Structure formats: C-alpha cells, structure tokens
C-alpha cells in the first residue's frame, strides 16, 4: 500500500515539475534542466547578478543578457537518439 502511494506521489511530482525528470529522462535533458534552473536563479537574484557583473567587469544588463542567452542551449545541441 505504501509503495503504491509513494509511486503515485512521485508521478504527480514529475508531472507537475519538469526538472524532476521521469523514467525516460536522458542525462542531457537532466543537465539542461539543471543549467537552466541555475541560470534562472542567477538572473532572479540581484546580489548574484551584481557579483558576476563585478567579477566579469561587465554591466548588469550585459551579464543578465548573457545568462539568458545561455538558457537556449546550455549544454550544446542534444545528442542523436537511437530510437528515432
């Protein structure tokens, strides 16, 4: 009974939040989600954005733009799938 409940909770969590993955998630998809979440956190926190701007000697807007650009393909193009 507990096992069924835990599995249903896990399936609900995976359907609600994309980054939690599922049984068919490949390593590349998981890494892309991690990088996008990290970059989104950096963009959302002004203090981290300021830290990066000072460290890179760039303006806040340029650092924010660069982080948002990295969200498109943070880990490069996806690998070829064998099942297609």
TrEMBL record:
Database matches in Pfam families: SF3b10
GO (cellular component) term, any one: U2 snRNP
A biological process from GO: mRNA splicing, via spliceosome
Family: Belongs to the SF3B5 family.
Protein's name in the database: Splicing factor subunit
């Amino acid at each position: 009974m507990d096992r069924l409940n835990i599995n249903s909770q896990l399936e609900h969590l995976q359907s609600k939040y994309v980054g939690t993955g599922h049984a068919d998630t490949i390593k590349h998809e998981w890494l892309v989600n991690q990088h996008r979440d990290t970059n989104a956190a950096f963009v959302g926190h002004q203090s981290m954005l300021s830290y990066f701007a000072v460290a890179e000697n760039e303006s806040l807007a340029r650092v924010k733009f660069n982080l948002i650009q990295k969200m498109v393909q943070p880990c490069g193009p996806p690998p070829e799938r064998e099942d297609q």
